[in-house]
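Researcher: Quick sanity check before group meeting.
Model: Go ahead. Protein one:
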Amino acid sequence: MKEALRSAAYIVLLFSFLVASFAMAPSSAQVVHEDPGNLTSIKQVDMDYRILMAMADMFNSMEQIASCLNSSDFNGARLNYDRLSGSYDSFKALIERLDMTDTEYGDIVNIGDLAMEDIRTLVFESENYSVYYEKYEEALRDDDRDAYIAYAVSLQETYREISEANRNVWENVTAIKESAENMGHDVNRLYSDFLLVLDDYHGKLEEREKPIDVLLGGTRLEISSDKKELSVGDDVRLDAVLTDKDGLPVSGSKVSFYVENRLAGTAVTDPSGRCYVVYRIPLTIFKSNIKAYSEFRPEKEALSPSISDVLELNVSEESTALSINVYPSNASYGDTVTVSGMLCTEEGAGIFGKPVRIFLNGVPYGPVRTAEDGSYVYSLNIGPYTPGGTCEIYSEYTRSYSDDILLGSTSRYASLDVSMQDSILTLGDPDDIFTGGDDARFEGVLKTFSGLPVSGAKVKIYADGVVTGTGTTDNDGRYVVQASIPYNILPGTQQIYSEFSPGPNTAVHGSKSDVCEAIFKVSDPAVMFDGMPLVLFPEDTLTVNGTLQNYDGKAIPGKPLNVSFSGIVIGTTVTDGEGKFNVSYAVSGGDISGIGRVEVFLDDDGGLLSGGVYNGGFLLVMPVGKAQAAILFIIVLAVVIAAAAWFGGLRRHMRDRSRVVKPAVLEPLPEPVSTEVLTTSGYDFDKSVADITRHIESGDYRGSIKLIYEAVKMLAGKYGLETPDSATHREFYRHVVQKDMSLEEPLKPIISRYEVVSYGEGDISEDEAYRALDGLRTINILMGSVSEDTE
């Protein structure tokens, strides 16, 4: 019975709480903010790296396409083609920003567009081929000759399109590879992996196609060679034999020979169906195991096309030699040193298109590609981070991958003397006063001691020894750092300076600017809650979300917070990069119940942010589940309705009686509200309510509203929420609600009616006066509970 009464009491509290606490939680505010712990200026993007990454994405998508086709995963092939299209668009956008002519850009894009179209043909025609093949096999099983002949013709036509697209892809992708190499990117591994996977797929289709060619009156083509073991520069004879489906030779037909998917030559068959070409192994062959095949494309409709099996040839590894020349041999910051040399075979033949890197005291520069004669030229610009003193310099060619026929080589060690210079760094006067999160601008100039501007140097800004931001000098040696003041600086007067620190033994020595001073002030943060529930049940989870902001609305990241309910800590968290926090707590634990306040605690860490306690509003935690609460609520609601009906009837009866018995003489109105300034000492709330009630009962509704407003101000002063006498009613409302959000709902009708009384000509009804009086009583209860919690 006691438990039932206690639950019923909670239901009553819930009913009044819903009325008094609606809209307690402020609306959320989303603020994007930079993490002060990682404050750096925008870094110069390495364009070469971005181009290489875009190409890596392209080749990866191509390899995935080939793998999906191999496994008949056509949905995956289409998906990866879409990804390839996106990477290709990024690649085009990046190379458009390079220093090249419109013609050069157009040539690269034209090749790429052709390759994309051929890859698209591979993807979609392969799916068509798979559909035709399934129907072809089904027709064979049903012995439906007309159907399987028709599907065989479709398969043959589709296979021709796929084969042509495959050959074009080899040519165009190889051209893209060469363009990338000319821009200094080594993509051999990516290139070969993709094409090898594509070869595997095409080989599977080729095996499927052979019986179909025979069925349709096909031809047969065989290939052989006079030798299998070769070296660079060797000649190899590739022979082909072309016969029809009956094994008879086909004469007078042109046969094409391919090595690594590139045309090696063409020949016409003799009366015995034989022909051959002689192919010389070039230095451009990029791997030790190469593949050759022959292809027949008929000019007569009576014959069908044919492709031979793949012939494998082995090419032996080739040693290389690399030379180096350095001019001039003495340099200083701002100079350009020319590093040149040759990459050759042991026999002295120049090797074209290979990447060569330059190393200065072990620091890599380049790469640069060798020209047609094997020569390379690299312009080494002496920058602020270039090693100083007497340096060792050499060049190196590294084997692109394990089966590359060209072995790597290193040049001799040459000498380069780089004189080291002192530098001078300045810092303009910053602002005099900062608070945490302020946007700050720092600028200055970095020059050598001889007055030469230093470009490309990283300059850091320090305040109280904390890195505030980083900038890079331009061609004039000027730097500008836009930074947000971190919160971990000690308040007070602190030193600010800039520093260039390239490390030991560099072409330009490091330096610091003169010291400036500024005052760093502590600021009060604010917590913006994203919305709070009004009621929770034992099966619910209490979730507290919000954003920690500074005084001007900027998010504050990386701050630890404690969240409590009625003084019980229910979770700890740290604000993320946007200042947001989230704490979830299972109510079923039974640690919390009843009406309580949700609060967020921020500790004072001694920096530029003060600690504090932030009120998230009240909520009611029910001791019973939703089903029990619903039953009790219905019972209590029925009682409330019955009581309201009884008291309403009684009130109407009393009013009717008063009209009959009392003479129609109004009592004199109470004295007008005094404008004398009241004090909180000795304030009697019950007496004030009685006075207001007399005004309402006598019909002075406007006067009662003024008395209610004065009573609210007296309560605010009594409980530490006073405002200056000059504050308007709206300023008073904002001040009180900001201090305690739970007062917002009961205070609203008082302020709105007071505004009508003071500034408008509208009437105040009896019901409006009584609602304002109810709001006053609620405010008195809530303020009293706040005072007790504080004590």
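Researcher: Fine. The other one?
Model: Protein two, sequence then structure:
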Amino acid sequence: MNTYAIPPLVTSILILAYGIFVLRQNIKSSVNITFSLMTFATFLWLFFISMTYLSPDEKLALFWDKNAYLGVIFIPVTIYHFTVTFLGLKNQRKFILLSYIIAIIFLFLSRTNYFISGVRHYFFGYYTKAGLIHPLFLIFFMAMILISIYNLYKEYKKAEIGSLRHVRIKYMFFGILIASFGAIDFLADYGVEFYPFGFTFVIAFIFISGYAIVKYRLLDIEAFTYRTLGYMAISFLILASYTGVFTLIHRMFHKKFENPILTGGLLLVFLFIFMGIKNKIWKLIDRVFYRDKYKYRETLNAFSKSLNVLMDLEELLTMIVNIIADTVRINKASIMILDDGKQEYFVKNQKGISSPEVRLSKDDPFVTWLFSQGGVVEKEMLGMDPWYSKMKEVGLQRFRELESEICIPLIVGNQMVGLLNLGKKISGEIYKKDDIELLSSLGAQSAIAIHNAITYHSLEKRTEQLLTMCKIGQDVGSSLELDTVAKTLLNNIKSTMRAEIVSILLLDEETERLVIKASCGLDEEVAKNTSLKIGEKISGWVAQHAQPALVNDIESDPRFAKRSHEKYYTRSLVSVPLMLKGKVIGVVNVNNKETKRAFTFYDLEMLMGICGEASVIVENARLYTALRQSYLRTIQSLAEALDAKNRYTRGHVSRVCDYAIKIATELNLSQSEIENIATAAMLHDIGKIGIKETILLKPGKLTDSEYNEIKKHPETSVKIIKPIGLSEEILSIIRHHHEWYNGKGYPKGLIDEKIPIGARILSVADAFDAMVSERPYRKAFTKEGAMEELRKCNSSQFDPEIVETFLKIV
């Protein structure tokens, strides 16, 4: 055994395993492909040159030597190809084909004595003897290498200093530069006797590029180590077998195997054997080295499916923190939630954190930066990637405060509902590529689940507040409808004060302007368009000073001036602020007595007394209306969020509402009936929030128990909505929108006219939109197909009159 052949042989196996592994990471990546071509060409050179060293005679040595040039000739071309692809040099792509053509020409020439005239016998074994045209190849070889190195150097200078691209090019530049020193072996082709040590520069290239791969997370370090060892072992077995068989044939038959077809055929046979057994070998390797990884991946996948089941925020957060901490095996984890009142993120749930009282303002630079990143951010990257340089100092400080190595912003739409912070692994390992991908996916799903839980919790709180306000309202007045309260107050003042004009202006807290809520005696246009700043005109003055105003004669009162453009004539007026706890909430104006006399202090005291009592009623009514509208918007937002979360039902609620309004309008229903139907349409599926997604998105037929869960959603919707105080007509539409005209629907099995007309309308609109939308278990109907289906179900599932009306307008 020639020991001089061992170093290049081992290096060839190493570079082959390295190249195959890189290719396997992303077989579609042009960078990975060209990198692997470069390593394969290097493998051919080193492997066949080691066979040359091992050859017992000159003929076999010459055969192996010429095969070595299969790799040598393509090394400079593949290096150039790789650098052009790696650097993204589109303007040089046209030269790649030309370089390959030249290489192929040299490949054919290498089979002649003009290129390789024979072999010399040195102390380490046989080696190439350069022919007449060999120097031309050397010129081509060095030119391609120098161009490649120049490209790397030029792009290195152009890249932003310290950027990830700058760092990666730097390592690749030095790796290829050092590897190019392997060309020193060409000296032995021209009679310089020394042991060719070019393989050492190849080893240096593997270590330099491998370090960059590991350091800058192009590949998984654990996978890199174990899989490379696996490839090395497999490659060694295949290549050793191939070499042994070929040498045995040569010695047995004493043949000169110069035919590349025969050589290539034998190599293909061994590659075919390798392809047949590689999957079994990889399963064995994965089972040995990746048992824990597979185990925790399955746990996380199962966990992500159960996220949306919990609606209790505390239970949900505890589950997220505990399962992630236990599965990924980290020492610290916390979830921060936004405190809307203080506009701060605070630790809502944690494990292992020593300072859980830490808070971050919503406007904190680190928080806004996290939101802009939109994904997993690692502490390590802050210190490594210059793109993060502006946030490096603040970011590292925040990571220390949060006791974390990873921050995952929990984003839903354009809102960041919280932060998931993860500390170091107990094992001390870094977070790997698979960890980041899984945590990123988990973060997105957790964000939706937390958002739903917060919304649901907010909904419950608003319901409690609303019930409290309802009770207060019953104590202070017979009605909490702001319009009704305003109209009643208006009529009472008019009759009591015997006034021609009465108006009630309420302060809009958002715009800080006074707008007319109710009036009598004013032009509709004036009432509609009046909007006063605080301090503007008499009403604005009263609101600004929180003082009443009694004006006997407006033209002679120095505090106010008559506006010539006013569309009504004011002689005398009383203006009193509506106040609650020292705060102005509106103004009541009374203009002109019916008797044509001026208002007196008696009138002023009367109006002040009425306004004092009315302020509580008006404020309660306004708060009730605002809360009800807010509650309704919350439910609608929740319905739309539930709707939008599923791509199959995205936009379903708004479309159904539009269809239902058109049907109701065509049937000449009253405005109040149309409004009731529209409200019901927006809220009809809110009850599905309690149904598991596995049921809602099931691609196959539902089981009886699953279908029974679906059938509960109308009653669940009513249960959620009822505390708002919506009319029974709206609740009835929601409750019965799945009833069938023939009595075979649910939940009550009502028949024909016993089903509320709004529910019958909603049933048609809901069914049509469901049919023309894609579902997990079927493709979308065409519009014509859906219309035909409505006709088929006419009189059985749907009211025939409503179907006919809908088909006219759709």
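Researcher: One line on it for the slide.
Model: The chain has 28 helices and 14 strands.
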